[in-house]
Amino acid sequence: MTAIKFINGFPFVAHRKVGPEPVAMIKESHRFYTWMDERRTCRDFSDRPIPREVIENLLLTASTAPSGAHKQPWTFCVVQDAALKKQIRIAAEQEEYESYKERMSEEWLEDLAPIGTDWQKPFLETAPCLVVVFRRPYEDQPNGRKRQNYYVQESCGLACGFLLAAIHHAGLVALTHTPSPMNFLATLLNRPSNEKPFLLIPIGYAAAECWVPDLKRKSLADISAWY
Question: Choosing a second label site near 33 at 20 to 30 A (CA), which of 67, 95, 137, 221?
């Protein structure tokens, strides 16, 4: 029987997690790092369908992320309909064209050059699944009032990080796409007013011929400070 303790009138359950010995921990943490280091952002997708249960498990994994006051202020919209994916592509490319031609600075375009991107986004149609992540700044209450959610940006960012790791673990590839502005996504998907577009993530199998930039990640010395 699970032990339960009440704090402030709410139930808490005991959580006892015994970690491995340091030698085993070092080995396993390095194995996980080297495996995650193989993850790449992909723009060349196969149109091979993904089993629904796989997508459901990916979303459930994402929802295990921590969130402010455990509000879980996210909605994951799964788009598989070909006609709707085409609409999303058309709208996204319109915004991206404006960004590449007018909105982005020369410095920004220089930084994007090694990645090889432009305003055209065919992967939005090719990928078998688009997950559109919406953040929820508040929840509508039955009495008409709005109840605030907390640390919404941070919470959704954490959930998307969990989702990307789960996608990699499943043997699939993904892309984090942020057309700006993204309000067209709420309109096309007919989302409620308390949901704001956060991230658009195409998911699928890598194409038979898939190319990614030969980029190098920053070293540990570049990303950390020890005190």
Answer: 67
Residue 105 tokens, joined: 């600075």
User: Which residues are registered as beta bridge partners of 150?
Assistant: 68
Contact 58, 191 (CB under 8 A): no
User: What secondary structure does DSSP assign to 30-75, as a single string?
Assistant: HHHHHHHTT--B---B------HHHHHHHHHHHTTS--BTT---EE
Question: Which residues are 140's β-sheet partners?
Answer: 146
The model's pTM is 0.93
Which residues are 59's β-sheet partners? none
Structure tokens at 92: 């996204």
Nearest Cα neighbor of 192 from 77, 94, 30 is 77
| pLDDT 10s digits, 72-131 | 999 999 999 999 999 999 999 999 999 999 999 999 999 999 999 999 999 999 999 999
DSSP string over 132-182:
EEEE-SEEE-TTS-EEE-BSHHHHHHHHHHHHHHHHHHTT-EE--B--SS-
159 burial via Cβ count (<10 Å: 0-12, 13-18, 19+)? buried
What structural domains and CATH numbers belong to the chain?
41-212 (3.40.109.10)
For 141-152, the pLDDT digits (tens) are 999 899 999 999
Q: What is the dihedral of CA 154, 155, 156, 158, to 10 degrees?
A: 80
Sheet with 129-135, strands from edge to edge, namely 74-79, 129-135, 196-204, 173-174
